[in-house]
Every structure is written in C-alpha cells, then in structure tokens.
Amino acid sequence: MKTNKFAVFLFALTILVIFAFPYYQNANALTNTALTTNTVQFSDQSRPKIEVVFVLDTTSSMNGMIQAAKEKIWSIASSMASAQSAPEIKMGLVAFRDRGDAYVTKVIDLSSDLDSMNAKLLDFRAEGGGDGPESVNQALYEAVNKISWSMNQNAYKVIFLVGDAPPHTDYENDVQYPESLQMADQKGIVINTIQCGQQTTTKIQWQQIASLGKGRYFQVEQAGSAVAISTPYDKQLASLASQLDATRLYYGNQQEQKRQQKKQNVARKLDTHASEESLARRAMFNVSKSGSNNFLGEKELVDAVSSGRIGLASIDQKQLPKAMQTMAVEKQQQIILKKSKRRKQLKHEIAVLSEKRNDHIEQQLKEQGGALDSLDQQIYATVRAQASKKGFIYEDDHAKY
User: Could you say which of 34, 242, 302, 380 has the lowest number of CB atoms within 10 Å?
Assistant: First the structure.
C-alpha cells in the first residue's frame, strides 16, 4: 500500500515538473529580459549631451569676432542648456591661422569645464593672416580627429566653422575638407559655417562645407553681429558669482587637489580679466542644472556631503582641505553646513537678478527691433533645429543673452 502511494506521488511529481518546466523557463526568460531591459533603461537614462567645437579663424581681420566669442561663450552655453532635458554641455576650440604664422592650429579639447575654456580664450589675440586663404583644411581635420568626441550616438555633436577667408587648396600633405567632412559624418558630427564679412569666394566655400557637413550656413558682420547689451544688474551678478565660487571646498589626493587648485585659479583669472557682462552670464549659467559640472568640478566637498552622496567621516583627513584636517568632525560639519546655506542663498539671489536682467534685455531688444540676425540668435536657431533630431526640446523662441 505504501509502495503504491509512493508510486502515485512520484507520478504526480513527474507530471508537475513536465508542465511546470516550460513555465519556469518562460518566467526565467522574462526575468532575464526584465533585467536586460532595466539595464538598457538605466543606460539610456544617462544625461543627454551636447558637444560643440568652434573652429575659429584667429587672424588679424577676425579681431571683432574673437572679442565677441570671449564675451558670448556663457550665453551660447546657456542657450544650449535651455533644452527641457538640461543637457550636459561640453565645449572645445580649434583656433587656426595659416602656415608661416605664429601657429597653424591650437586645439582645446572638449570639456564641461567651461571656465578653463573661457580663460584660454581670453589669451587669444587676433594676429597674422592678411594674405587671403587660411589653413581651414587642417583646422577641420583636427576638429574631427583630435577632439575627444564621445561614442554616444544620442549626443548632439556639432562644429561651427567661423571665419572670413576661404581654405588653401594648394598645400601639399593637406587633407582636403571633403574628406574630413566624410569622417565627421561617420562620427555623427554636424558641420555648420559662419561667414564673417561678405567675401564672395568665402561664401561659396562656406556654403559647400555646410552642405557636405549636413549643416547650415549663415553670414554675420565682420565683428560678429552679437548682441551686446549691458544691464544695471551685471556688476552685482558678477560679484555674486565670485561669492558663489568662495563656497566651494575640495577633497582628494595630491593629484586631484592640484587639478582643483588650478580650477580655482582659473576662476580668479576670470574675475580679474573678464568683463562684468561676461561674468554676469557666467553666474547665470553656473546656477543652472547644466552649469553644475562647470561650477562644482570634481570632488566638491560641500555638495558631496550635503547631498548625502558621501559621509564626512568616510573621507581620509589628509584628503580634506588643509584648514579642516585638524578640526573635530563637528566643526567640519558646521563649516560645510554654513557653506551649503550660503550657497543656496546666493543661487536664489542670482536667479532673481537673472530674471530682472533678462527682462531688461528683452525690453531693449524690442526697442531696437529684435535680434533675428544676431550671432546669438542664429546659433541658437541652428542648435534648436539640429538638436531636435536627437530628441532635444527647446521651447524658447529666442537665445539667451
């Protein structure tokens, strides 16, 4: 009897396994699919990126545009950052002249540290040239191949070629621009051209480059046609930006601390040499979500601790700022809390003044008849149209100034 019951039990168990196994397989497959899907979703949720490189003619005739670039870097960044997704903004620069000048090209790689980019841009002077065509071919080749473009297919990657003279096409050992543009296309990089002045030969070449680069051509005045409006709020915004910088504290090993000190030195250089208008624009960018990378840099202590990403007690005392290394933990926490509160207050003040500044500029532009042909607006309109193909949504009709 017991044997029969055992046999029936085995039979029932066998039937259960036979019917349940496919269900288990499907459930396991669904679990694996869910894990895979979640992994993909997590990867897709990575912050959207905009990578922009300006290929800029720095010969003597470009002095006005170079000055405009120094002034407008922050408003251009803010315009790009105004997408709904608050993208990470990286900028780079390829400055070019011609063979026989002090340099042919100078490459500044892509970085979210726009302070350093701005500081280097301040050092550029318009010199050389004067003999017609420039080394545009080499500049474009290096912009495509010597810049650290990401492999992210969803990133909006764009080059703005800015100049007033056509490329030399007669140099030996020179990669002609059609070949460089093919390379750019393979990397998903769009090439736009901005002509300064009205030279016909330049217009023809610039239009062809934009066409081959799947981008847009537009023309501005020799000096750049950028909106240059001072406001009653610029001086105070510049001051608040400097005070905001003072809320930063950094931690890390010796190599990291050297990089952090360099970043702080760059901020001081901007405070000394940049205009109040430029510093006001920097303040506005730094308090935006997209500006956090530029403002904070790497291993910023106040943000790391106050956000809860890292515990103060978990940091090696030797990696803290020197003034804090011998303090009791309670004292260290007090300093961080004080800096955090001050930072929040300053960001609020900057946001309030930024609105007033924007209103003032909008009123001025209305009185002047608008700024549709300005450098600012044409770059913004170009970015808005092209970035939309990558899923970026810009609701504003006009650029940030």
Answer: 34
**In the block, residue with structure tokens 């905001």:** 244
Residue 260, classed as helix, strand or coil, is helix
- List per-residue pLDDT tens for the chain, 401 residues long: 444 444 444 444 444 433 343 333 333 332 333 323 332 232 334 789 999 999 999 999 999 999 999 999 999 999 999 999 999 999 999 999 999 999 999 999 999 999 999 999 999 999 988 778 999 999 999 999 999 999 999 999 999 999 999 999 999 999 999 999 999 999 999 999 999 999 999 999 999 999 999 999 999 999 999 999 999 999 999 999 999 999 999 999 999 999 999 999 999 999 999 999 999 999 999 999 999 999 999 999 999 999 999 999 999 999 999 999 999 999 999 999 999 999 999 999 999 999 999 999 999 999 998 899 999 999 999 999 999 999 999 999 999 99
Domain range enclosing 256: 234-365
Residues paired with residue 33 on neighbouring β-strands, in sequence order: none
DSSP state of 202: H
Report the DSSP beta bridge partners of residue 162.
56, 194
What is the rounded distance in angstroms from the CA atom of residue 207 to the CA atom of residue 13?
A: 77
User: Rounded to an integer, what distance in angstroms lies between the CA atom of residue 198 and that of residue 167?
Assistant: 15
Tokens of 331: 């004292």
99 plus 178 within the same structural domain: yes
Nearest CA to 376 out of 229, 204, 198 is that of 229
Q: Residues 243, 262: one domain?
A: yes
Q: Are residues 259 and 185 in the same domain?
A: no
The H or E element containing residue 33 is helix 2-44
Do 91 and 208 belong together in one domain? yes
- Inter-residue contact 279 to 241 (CB < 8 Å): yes
- Asked if the structure places residue 5 within a domain, the reply is no
d(CA 23, CA 36): 20
Q: Does residue 41 sit within a domain?
A: no
* CATH at 129: 3.40.50.410
Please choose, from the candidates 43, 45, 123, 75, the residue with its C-alpha nearest in 3D space to the C-alpha of residue 380: 75
User: Do 126 and 361 form a contact (C-beta atoms < 8 A)?
Assistant: no
